[in-house]
């Protein structure tokens, strides 16, 4: 902890000794290593060769501690600052900001793990979805070559429901987000 000025994070004297220090630190949030709960479910239906399938997957009771380096180190190391942090920082005009003031000076007070930097990393994702048409068997028999054919459109990682504003909850801390993709294909069997 260090000297506090306006715009710095305020801490509670948890143990009541009149001093804010490391003795006031308590456990907060859930694990930041692995979620307590994993879940998934599948949906699918087919009618007269037209069908769809979807797989959802998610986690619950999972915390993330935002990377304070990405907010403060750009000012110290002269690198790019995220517009998210810049627009949501404390200023005299923005007293209810989500994040503390920016400074080019090191500030141990604002680097501490606390509830400001803690986010709910739980999520529900549509991992993959596929819409397809299976050509009728009698049509395939007429070709005398093909045993089956399926025309499809498949999407991967298209939707994510989460509470983290700055990144994908799974790639959190990485420089690149997870890729989304849409594929159109024809699967044939002989």
TrEMBL record:
This is SusC/RagA family TonB-linked outer membrane protein. It comes from Bacteroides uniformis.
């Amino acid at each position: 902890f260090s000297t506090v000025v306006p715009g710095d994070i305020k801490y509670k004297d948890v143990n009541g000794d009149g001093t804010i220090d490391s003795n006031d630190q308590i456990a907060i949030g859930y694990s930041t290593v692995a979620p307590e709960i994993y879940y998934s479910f599948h949906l699918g239906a087919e009618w007269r060769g037209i069908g769809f399938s979807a797989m959802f997957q998610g986690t619950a009771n999972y915390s993330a501690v935002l990377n304070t380096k990405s907010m403060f180190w750009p000012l110290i190391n002269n690198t790019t600052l995220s517009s998210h942090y810049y627009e949501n920082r404390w200023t005299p005009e923005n007293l209810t900001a989500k994040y503390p003031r920016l400074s080019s000076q090191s500030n141990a007070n604002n680097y501490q793990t606390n509830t400001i930097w803690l986010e709910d990393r739980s999520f529900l994702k549509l991992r993959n979805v596929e819409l397809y048409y299976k050509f009728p068997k009698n049509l395939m028999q007429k070709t005398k070559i093909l045993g089956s054919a399926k025309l499809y459109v498949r999407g991967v990682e298209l939707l994510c429901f989460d509470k983290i504003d700055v990144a994908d909850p799974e790639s959190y801390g990485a420089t690149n987000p997870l890729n989304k993709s849409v594929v159109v294909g024809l699967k044939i069997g002989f």
